[in-house]
């Protein structure tokens, strides 16, 4: 059968990879099916996708944001139930959880990749200054001090203008170390812990200390500014996620290294945010359900895992299948899965289902902590207050 | 035949009644001028004849046919507007040919008619020009030319010369008169201008507040205005008025303590003259003490060929007297004024004129 | 009461005339620089590579920072010729419809007395007050029903609807000031109401049409949203949407963005130049007489 | 022109073949034809979709995407639920500030430029075109270039300020709660100043020269002529500029803020306006699911606020700003 | 004292030279009218006197002081504009008080002066009105009032009445004349209108193409125009011209085959008369055959008090003859024309007039 499948995605920068690597590989094994990758700029993706779905013009395959964003689409009948898809068994439960109903009774997206948070650094600069990857929080600040004193490099390449980095690359990056990853996350969901508890306030306190090491006038420093600052060799440490690897490999002209979020004390268990970030599902309104399912099955395959992870270093396939990671930096980061406990971003499941939206709140308050517009306690209180406003388990 | 008959024509804009029932009979080939103060409904009436304004009541009949519902283009009329209303994007030829082209007339016919109209109006050299490249008078001529080519049965002019300067106005006025003599088409002409009205009209229609005050030849209106309004409106400088005391049941009158003046009027039962009117050109100047009154000249306006004297004799408004260009008086001189009885106009308290028995001798 | 000033004072007056002139030019020039300096910066930086842009944004493109890579990307990646054609087709067609339909409606509102006149006038400008973007879903559904998704026509229709209120507003005000004589004259000449509009009224309002065109053109040319929703297919993409492909989630190809935006300025500038010759006369009599 | 020719003409005219049937005045069909296409397109593609959307404000959404009647419930939520109300009033307040800044910066600058241009300096039309260019730019360009200029990292503004010895003045204006809104407003002013400039310029041009001459004879110099003669005469135009600014501040300001400060109106909602609140509520933002019902409620409120503003203007201001025959 | 002297005043706009060196001496209290065809530089000259236009060459001297560089407000002048140029946003009082207020005059003084001007002009009841609530005549009066309150030494009027309708024009004309009589201020007045020029002026300055053609009292210009241009320009309807053949070295002339006409002129060496001019009011009508020529009346314009006859006698342009209101002629009638020798004007081939020896008798 001849079918053309269109993929909706927010990953405009992946166009070349899909066109040159992934789609040819799929089409080679699936004659008669053609695939078209049609991304939308990330700022407009949700709005445009919703409009297209409501209007019935959305693509056959839909790249899914994790958790509630996609759950809503499923509930409104836009994403097909694919619980019976063969390849789905290839994935661990935690991976599938991002695209399942709360009771795990139905799956609606095939997990594609997760991203791992941590810190990338300028290895040349570290060598030049004679410093090593820090293991504990205090070592981390000692390293920052050294860099600061030297003065050549901005110690931390992060700003608060765009807000989301503060939440994503700072708070949920280092936070799991304090709230013990999944344990802390679940505690919030079941109402046994509050954001005002110390383990959720402490990361803010650490972030408050970061401010001294961030570029001057970081309040107006946007995400791309930080990227450029780092890749142009003007900053030493870049708090981030594995998704940068691809771009940085192209842009940075120096050696890079990576280290996971430092622990409080030597020997503590380390926690990483291994965030299930991308899945792909099927539009219920597709004209080619068979072809679409065939495509999803291919996505679930080991072949895709291998191709994808290496084509997009830093986006790690969630598949159980064995695959080789070729990029050294990516290798380093994925290796943390062995040493540390994994968890996902704390606000992403269930907690951001109401208004005010916890994740939005987290952007704002995290940035406020950087900007000295809120104390850690105030920031945590704001989060808690917002959550309590609508989330029943937190309301007693 | 293209007689125009208005039968009890009325017009109201919503509540506002503007024309209150006008009856008028205009013969084929006649040149009729509408005059009247601003806002009296001249334009409205003209536009109703043209079909540009619907008729609220009564009938407009052209050549025996009721045209109330006929579109303007099919009424056999052509209209010339005050603002020329040329099509700015077409040249002179295009402006004149426009209606004919639109009617699908033959190219050759159009060309012939336009050429002929251009010749009549002396526009041959300007056919390729755009309106903005023309002088005021030339534009006006094009506007007329545009009407001529349509070969209408009735020409309508709405203050066609009022945007021109005085000298051009005189010239165009004569041109329009010659045009009428040549084409012998019915023409209806609205104007504010005394001189235009007097010189162009076969008959003048004086309008006030949407009603006809008087219809007649220029000289009829000049010599026999039927009321004070018409008397004051026709003639320039305008008639002088003087309140008087009727004596002898209105067969004679006097002003203040002056000697009684004999009148030759048809008396009407129940009406006595209370005001006389006399035109500036009919007042005679005599030695002080020899006239009906003495007055002081306080402004002398010398136009060369004639002189206007403004004479104050204690009356509310000064009198204007028209004298010779060579008159030797100066401001401050005292003169005697004579009002020849046969030139006097008499009005009763309502302003209605009395018919003078000796006036006809004056008619030319 | 006359006190004729000393010549000394008068001379000071003349000197002031000169310095006034200088002051006028200083202010205008100063503001002009403020207005175009950033634009120049965009164009300047479109000829640099990323490092050039960010390490020395003010510098001229030079040796190691000069790069046409942005333009190369734009010209090779995606089909920018098509995008440009699409943008121009959409903008020009929508402008044409806005001007035509807007002028027709304005003519009717200004020229004829009819019962719904005022009400329709108000109705037609209500649309200024709510961003049409809100109606996206309904518009999309409509387009689906009309089978117009991924056609330029869909964009043209939406932009026309979006531009009509302002156009009708400005044009109506202006039409009221048009000489009535000239329309009447055409009536006597036997033209139908339609031909009066097209052959007499339209030529007279050309300057105002230019004004409306300029005001309507900007949001159409620069709109990102409706192309995204209604015509995101490759064949129907507009320039603004095409530029988006260089803006990713985590990486932005600044050279390409700047290059494409620099090119994208040209057609609007061209259109503006086309209309602006008529512009001032237009605004004078149109927009101002609100 | 002898008698003979005129007689000939006369007979020729009378001998003319009978005219074709005379047409009668039609009904009002042409009015319909003129107005229908605009009304039709406008109704179908603008009013209907908008009404469809605004109608949603009276319903409440369920998880499965269906809706139930909620009366004015959403409005109550928006105005009285602390979560919504804070955002709503904050956005409205920011809008008013935005409006205020445009009124005190954009329009006076536009007025100043127009006034200078109306003196017909040399190169006037060049200035006019160049100053109008930013108005033609897309917000993507405007956002990028001003972020670059104002960014602390790349030093454009610091260099420029340093050139005039004011480097110490530099602040990350876009990043500070206290200055972000003002800064964005000023960028918007920069972009759109061309519009009031053009409108006012045209109004100034329509003031007759004789009036200015009269004022000169009356002893006024250029400055006083501007204040005492020109300005009063263009007040109606300034009124229109004000009302356009007011409307634009609700509808058009969104794009720029969204492009520069994101959907949350960073930092800390200090640049959040009705437009951004509406957009993220209606269409969603990251994990926030779009809520078309609350979105529609906000949009309706926005509509009412604009309507109130316009009505106040029409009733209170416009009537006093009489238009003068000039 | 506020004599106005222009010394070789010149004006050029860039390359375009508009005023070519004008010398003029205007005495304190004089009423001088500038006339001339459109575009001849009347307004420019006035505006240079006002200081609204810089002087390219020469001097403007007011009251003995050179004012070339003085701002308008300090020249002691006031100006009244054609389009009134009232401040639309100020009421009548505000308009009149504007200049004084701006000059920081005392409130009481302002009030007194405005009140007085309003009284002179009969504007007392209108002080609170805005210009748009006034009629044309009232606006014109406010414009004049605004000039009066400034108590200027020189009034400048640039076609102040040309926007008014004919009737109002007559009225305002008289008002301006009385104003001049009352204030005795120097007034300089630009107009297109014959009648205004003739009736208002102490002296008329006829301009053509930026040069003075003649300066003199109205009657000097009427009776002794120095050239054909002035002769044709002054007087309405305008002078009739006729090319003639000089005989006897120019002491007598004849037209075609007519009998020779005796002339009473000062001959000038080297110049012979080639054209005669005669005003419409000087042509006498006689029985056919009894006059110098016979002609056919082809247009009769009856104004009531007088009649203009357009008479064609085969000459290029028809002659206009002014006759009595009651004249009995009709279109088509043949009449004889007599040109009384003492009323003839004679011009040589350059258009320069000959001085008539018997003309002075005609002067009033
Ligand atoms: N469209 C209209 N609606 C209401 N009233 C109108 C309309 N047109 C004209 N009128 C009124 O009708 C009356 C007659 O107007 P019309 O234009 O016929 O006067 P006119 O005699 O031509 O005046 P003018 O000499 O000033 O041209 C006026 O009082 C005018 O106000
Ligand atoms: N600003 C200018 N630049 C160039 N030429 C000018 C300017 N102003 C006037 N002129 C020219 O100067 C000449 C005299 O103009 P001016 O206005 O003084 O004439 P006028 O006698 O007042 O005419 P009118 O009777 O039409 O008012 C005209 O030929 C005109 O074209
Ligand atoms: Mg009229
Ligand atoms: Mg002039």
Automatic annotation (TrEMBL), chains B, E:
Domain ABC transporter: 4-234
CDD domains per UniProt: ABC_MalK_N
InterPro entries, sorted: AAA+_ATPase (IPR003593), ABC_transporter-like_ATP-bd (IPR003439), ABC_transporter-like_CS (IPR017871), ABC_transpr_MalK-like (IPR015855), ABC_transpr_MalK/UgpC-like (IPR047641), Mo/tungstate-bd_C_term_dom (IPR008995), NA-bd_OB-fold (IPR012340), P-loop_NTPase (IPR027417)
UniProt KW keywords: ATP-binding, Nucleotide-binding, Transport
GO cellular component, one term: maltose transport complex
Keyword Cell membrane among UniProt keywords: no
Record bears the keyword Transport: yes
Molecular-function annotations in GO: ABC-type maltose transporter activity; ATP binding; ATP hydrolysis activity
Domain of life: Bacteria
Gene3D superfamilies, alphabetized: 2.40.50.100, Nucleic acid-binding proteins, P-loop containing nucleotide triphosphate hydrolases
Stated family: Belongs to the ABC transporter superfamily.
PANTHER family noted in UniProt: MALTODEXTRIN IMPORT ATP-BINDING PROTEIN MSMX, MALTOSE_MALTODEXTRIN IMPORT ATP-BINDING PROTEIN MALK
The protein's name: sn-glycerol-3-phosphate ABC transporter ATP-binding protein UgpC
Organism: Rhodophyticola porphyridii
Lineage: Bacteria, Pseudomonadati, Pseudomonadota, Alphaproteobacteria, Rhodobacterales
Gene behind the chain: ugpC
Automatic annotation (TrEMBL), chain C:
Keyword match Zinc-finger: no
Topology within the bilayer: Multi-pass membrane protein
Gene Ontology biological process: transmembrane transport
TM helices/strands, residue ranges: 22-44, 83-106, 118-140, 152-175, 196-221, 254-275
Top-level lineage group: Bacteria
Predominant cellular place of this UniProt entry's protein: membrane
Keywords carried by this UniProt record: Cell membrane, Membrane, Transmembrane, Transmembrane helix, Transport
Pfam families: BPD_transp_1 (PF00528)
PROSITE patterns named among the record's database cross-references: ABC_TM1
UniProt family annotation: Belongs to the binding-protein-dependent transport system permease family.
UniProt name for this protein: Carbohydrate ABC transporter permease
Record lineage: Bacteria, Pseudomonadati, Pseudomonadota, Alphaproteobacteria, Rhodobacterales
Automatic annotation (TrEMBL), chain D:
Membrane is among the record's keywords: yes
One GO-annotated biological process of the protein: transmembrane transport
Annotated segments matching region Disordered: 1-22
Pfam families: BPD_transp_1
Entries under PROSITE patterns matching the protein: ABC_TM1
Major place of residence: membrane
Keywords: Cell membrane, Membrane, Transmembrane, Transmembrane helix, Transport
Compartment(s) where it occurs, according to its Swiss-Prot or TrEMBL record: Cell membrane
CDD domains: TM_PBP2
Membrane topology: Multi-pass membrane protein
Ranges of residues in domain ABC transmembrane type-1: 92-316
Transmembrane regions: 29-51, 96-117, 129-149, 189-208, 229-248, 292-316
Gene3D superfamilies: MetI-like
Biased composition (Basic and acidic residues): 7-17
GO cellular component term of the entry, any: plasma membrane
Taxonomic superkingdom: Bacteria
PANTHER family documented for this protein: ABC TRANSPORTER PERMEASE PROTEIN, INNER MEMBRANE ABC TRANSPORTER PERMEASE PROTEIN YCJO
Family statement: Belongs to the binding-protein-dependent transport system permease family.
Protein name: Sugar ABC transporter permease
């Amino acid at each position: 059968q001849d079918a053309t499948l269109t993929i909706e995605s927010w990953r405009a920068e992946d166009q070349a990879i899909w066109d040159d690597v992934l789609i040819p590989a799929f089409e080679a094994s699936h004659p008669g099916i053609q695939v078209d990758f049609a991304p939308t700029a990330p700022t407009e993706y949700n709005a445009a996708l919703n409009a297209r779905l409501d209007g019935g013009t959305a693509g056959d395959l839909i790249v899914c944001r994790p958790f509630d964003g996609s759950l809503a689409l499923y509930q409104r009948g836009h994403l097909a139930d694919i619980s019976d898809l063969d390849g789905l068994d290839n994935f661990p439960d935690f991976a599938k959880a991002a695209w399942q109903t709360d009771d795990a009774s139905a799956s609606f997206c095939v997990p594609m990749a997760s991203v791992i948070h941590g810190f990338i650094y300028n290895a040349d600069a570290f060598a030049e200054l004679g410093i090593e990857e820090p293991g504990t929080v205090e070592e981390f600040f000692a390293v920052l001090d050294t860099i600061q004193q030297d003065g050549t490099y901005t110690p931390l390449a992060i700003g608060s203008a765009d807000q989301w980095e503060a939440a994503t690359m700072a708070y949920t990056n280092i936070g799991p170390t304090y709230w013990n990853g999944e344990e802390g996350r679940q505690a919030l969901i079941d109402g046994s812990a509050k954001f005002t508890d110390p383990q959720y306030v402490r990361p803010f306190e650490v972030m408050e200390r970061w401010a001294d090491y961030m570029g001057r006038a970081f309040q107006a420093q946007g995400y791309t500014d930080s990227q450029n600052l780092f890749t142009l060799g003007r900053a030493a440490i870049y708090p981030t996620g594995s998704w940068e690897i691809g771009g940085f490999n192209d842009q940075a002209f120096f050696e890079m290294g990576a280290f996971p979020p430092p622990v409080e004390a030597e020997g503590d268990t380390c926690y990483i945010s291994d965030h299930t970030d991308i899945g792909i599902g099927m539009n219920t309104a597709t004209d080619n359900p068979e072809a679409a399912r065939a495509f999803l099955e291919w996505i679930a395959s080991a072949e895709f895992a291998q191709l994808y992870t290496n084509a997009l270093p830093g986006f790690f396939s969630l598949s159980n299948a064995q695959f080789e990671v070729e990029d050294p930096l990516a290798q380093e980061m994925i290796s943390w899965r062995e040493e540390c406990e994994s968890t996902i971003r704390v606000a992403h499941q269930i907690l951001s289902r109401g208004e005010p939206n916890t994740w939005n709140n987290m952007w704002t308050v995290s940035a406020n902590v950087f900007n000295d517009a809120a104390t850690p306690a105030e920031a945590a209180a704001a989060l808690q207050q917002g959550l309590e406003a609508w989330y029943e388990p937190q309301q007693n | 035949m293209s007689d125009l008959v208005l039968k009890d024509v009325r017009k109201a804009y919503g509540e506002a009644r503007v024309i209150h029932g006008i009856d008028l009979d205009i013969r084929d080939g006649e040149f009729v001028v509408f005059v009247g103060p601003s806002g009296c409904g001249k334009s409205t009436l003209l536009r109703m004849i043209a079909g540009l304004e619907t008729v609220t009541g009564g009938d407009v009949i052209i050549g025996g046919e009721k045209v109330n519902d006929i579109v303007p283009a099919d009424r056999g009329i052509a209209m010339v507007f005050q603002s020329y209303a040329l099509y700015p994007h077409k040249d002179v030829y295009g402006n004149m040919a426009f209606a004919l082209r639109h009617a699908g007339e033959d190219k050759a016919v159009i060309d012939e008619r336009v050429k002929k109209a251009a010749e009549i109006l002396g526009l041959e050299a300007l056919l390729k020009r755009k309106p903005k490249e023309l002088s005021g008078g030339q534009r006006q001529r094009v506007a007329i030319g545009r009407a001529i080519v349509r070969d209408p049965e009735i020409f309508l002019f709405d203050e066609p010369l009022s945007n021109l300067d005085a000298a051009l106005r005189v010239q165009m006025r004569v041109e329009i008169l010659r045009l009428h003599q040549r084409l012998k088409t019915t023409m209806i002409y609205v104007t504010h201008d005394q001189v235009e009205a007097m010189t162009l009209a076969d008959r003048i229609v004086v309008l006030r507040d949407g009603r006809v005050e008087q219809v007649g030849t220029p000289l009829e209106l000049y010599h026999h205005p039927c009321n004070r309004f018409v008397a004051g409106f026709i003639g320039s400088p305008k008639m002088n008025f003087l309140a008087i005391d009727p004596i002898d049941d209105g067969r004679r009158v006097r002003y203040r303590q002056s000697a009684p003046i004999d009148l030759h009027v048809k008396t009407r039962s129940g009406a006595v003259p209370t005001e006389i009117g006399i035109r500036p050109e009919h007042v005679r100047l005599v030695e002080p003490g020899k006239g009906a009154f003495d007055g002081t000249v306080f402004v002398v306006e010398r136009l060369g060929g004639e002189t206007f004297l403004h004479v104050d004799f204690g009356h509310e408004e000064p009198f204007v007297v028209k004298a010779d260009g060579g008159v030797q008086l100066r401001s401050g001189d005292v003169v005697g004024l004579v009002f020849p009885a046969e030139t006097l106009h008499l009005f009763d308290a309502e302003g209605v004129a009395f018919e003078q028995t000796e006036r006809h001798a004056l008619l030319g | 009461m006359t006190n004729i000033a000393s010549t000394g004072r008068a001379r000071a007056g003349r000197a002031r005339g000169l310095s006034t002139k200088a002051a006028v030019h200083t202010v205008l020039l100063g503001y002009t620089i403020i207005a175009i300096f950033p634009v120049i910066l965009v164009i300047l930086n479109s000829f640099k590579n990323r490092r050039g842009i960010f390490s020395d944004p003010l510098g001229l493109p030079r040796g190691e920072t000069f790069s046409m890579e942005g333009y190369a990307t734009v010209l090779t990646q995606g089909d920018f010729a098509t995008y440009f054609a699409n943008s121009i087709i959409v903008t020009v067609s929508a402008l044409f419809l806005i001007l035509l339909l807007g002028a027709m409606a304005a003519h009717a509102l200004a020229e004829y007395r009819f019962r719904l006149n005022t009400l329709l006038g108000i109705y037609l400008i209500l649309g200024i007050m709510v961003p049409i973007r809100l109606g996206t879903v309904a518009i999309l559904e409509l387009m689906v029903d009309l089978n117009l998704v991924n056609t330029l026509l869909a964009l043209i229709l939406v932009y026309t609807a979006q531009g009509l209120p302002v156009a009708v507003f400005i044009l109506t005000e202006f039409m009221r000031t048009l000489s009535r004589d000239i329309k009447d004259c055409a009536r006597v000449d036997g033209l139908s109401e339609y031909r009066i509009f097209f052959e007499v009224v339209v030529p007279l309002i050309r300057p105002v049409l230019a004004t409306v065109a300029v005001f309507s053109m900007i949001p159409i040319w620069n709109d990102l949203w409706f192309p995204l929703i209604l015509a995101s297919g490759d064949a129907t993409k507009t320039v603004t949407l095409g530029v988006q492909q260089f803006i990713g989630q985590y990486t932005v190809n600044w050279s390409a963005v700047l290059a494409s935006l620099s090119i994208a300025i040209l057609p609007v500038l061209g259109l503006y130049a086309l209309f602006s010759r008529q512009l001032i006369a237009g605004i004078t009599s149109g927009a101002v007489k609100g | 022109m002898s008698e003979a020719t005129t007689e000939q003409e006369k007979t020729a005219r009378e001998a003319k073949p009978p005219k074709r049937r005379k047409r009668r005045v039609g009904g009002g069909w042409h009015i319909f034809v003129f107005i229908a296409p605009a009304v039709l397109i406008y109704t179908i593609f603008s009013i209907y979709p908008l009404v469809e959307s605004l109608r949603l404000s009276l319903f409440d959404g369920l998880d499965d995407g269906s809706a139930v009647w909620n009366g004015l419930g959403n409005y109550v939520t928006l105005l009285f639920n602390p979560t919504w109300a804070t955002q709503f009033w904050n956005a409205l307040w920011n809008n008013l500030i935005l409006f205020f800044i445009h009124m005190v910066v954009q329009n006076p600058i536009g007025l100043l430029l127009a006034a200078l241009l109306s003196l017909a300096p040399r190169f006037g039309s060049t200035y006019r075109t160049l100053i109008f260019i930013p108005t033609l730019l897309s917000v993507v360009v405007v956002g990028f270039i001003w972020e670059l200029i104002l960014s602390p990292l790349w030093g454009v503004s610091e260099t420029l300020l340093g050139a005039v010895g004011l480097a110490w003045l530099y602040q990350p204006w876009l990043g500070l709660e206290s200055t972000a809104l003002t800064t964005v407003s000023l960028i918007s002013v920069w972009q759109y100043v061309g519009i009031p400039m053009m409108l006012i310029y045209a109004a100034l041009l329509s003031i007759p020269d004789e009036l200015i001459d009269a004022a000169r004879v009356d002893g006024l110099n250029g400055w006083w002529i501007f204040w005492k003669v020109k300005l009063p005469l263009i007040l109606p135009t300034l009124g229109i500029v004000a009302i356009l600014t007011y409307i634009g501040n609700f509808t058009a300001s969104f794009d720029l803020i969204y492009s520069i400060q994101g959907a949350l109106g960073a930092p800390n909602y200090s640049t959040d306006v009705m437009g951004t609140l509406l957009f993220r509520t209606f269409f969603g933002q990251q994990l926030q699911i779009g809520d078309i019902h609350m979105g529609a409620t906000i949009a309706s409120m926005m509509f009412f606020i604009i309507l109130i503003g316009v009505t106040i203007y029409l009733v209170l201001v416009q009537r006093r700003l009489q238009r003068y025959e000039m």
